[in-house]
Amino acid sequence: MSNKHKILDAILEQGMLPLFYQDSEAGSVEILRTLYKAGVRVFEYTNRGKSALPNFKKLKEIRDAEMPDLYLGIGTIKTPADANAFIEAGTDFIVAPIINPAVAEIANKIGMLWIPGCMTPTEISVAQEHKAMLIKIFPANILGPEFIASIKDLFAGQLFMPTGGVEINADNLKTWFKAGVCAVGMGSKLISKDVMSKGLYDELYENTQLALDLIKKSK
Fold it and tell me: Entry's InterPro entries (predicted)?
């Protein structure tokens, strides 16, 4: 089995892809450690600030030393230059808010999992043309579970993951999985501004365990 398939299987098994960005290197490391301690084995750091690349390199160092069974990916990759920089830094997979065929080509050439963001059926079709095995539905808070339920039969067999607005709530999660998603992206609803600014790592640990448990029951 290729690494691409192993990572995809890990996302499906976990049912959740946590994601965040923080300027602080130390804070980013503590959040990664907390997520791992709570049971996370696939994680996305996002390229949303000036410290993203150096912080990612530090997280990769910590991962290699302390968490060898964790898959560490990079999100918010919109350009070939960003893709190449983070591939060189050692990312395991790439997530994007858009479809950039040049980024898809880079990932496909090296057999790396590429998860593009889509908002319309046309975009989903384009993503499939560029071999997207998993598609991020974004922004999910705007589109809602009804969108997934409405289009899933048009794209039989395609794997979808909503990101944006997914709640740590049994009813919310059940609605998404019933609509046909295979996993959910979990950002600020899990790793909130308060968690980052106040170092509320115990709260993050408990909420991560809760989210993983609710997802297991919702799938």
Answer: Aldlse_KDPG_KHG, Aldolase_TIM
